[in-house]
Write a structure and sequence with these properties.
Blueprint (H helix, E strand, L loop, with lengths): L6 E5 H7 L6 E6 L2 E10 L7 E2 L38 E4 L2
Parallel strand pairs: 1-3
Antiparallel strand pairs: 1-4, 2-3, 2-5
């Protein structure tokens, strides 16, 4: 599935607790930044996990952002690799 505005897999248990329904726009955010995407409720991710699969270009999204807004620019201590694969975020229904 490709959507220029992206989507996030949201664990189905959290849906019942957090009031976020599939198909709605959500804002994914942390202290570094935020992006919006469509919530897809599924069991493809573990409890407590939100996944933004694939890559979509920020310049092609409605709001000019993507998952990179929430990632660190730091490098790993071994090999100076990227640290952008995992980060702590919160999710709320988009305003």
């Amino acid at each position: 599935m490709y959507d220029a505005n992206g989507y996030v897999d949201y664990y189905k248990y959290l849906n019942s607790k957090g009031g976020i329904n599939g198909g709605v726009r959500v804002t994914i955010f942390n202290k570094r930044g935020a992006f919006s995407a469509e919530a897809v409720i599924s069991d493809r991710v573990r409890p407590g996990v939100v996944s933004a699969p694939s890559v979509w270009w920020g310049k092609l999204t409605d709001d000019g952002t993507n998952a990179n807004e929430t990632t660190s620019q730091a490098l790993t201590d071994i090999g100076a690799g990227a640290t952008f694969y995992d980060n702590l975020v919160e999710v709320r229904t988009a305003q």
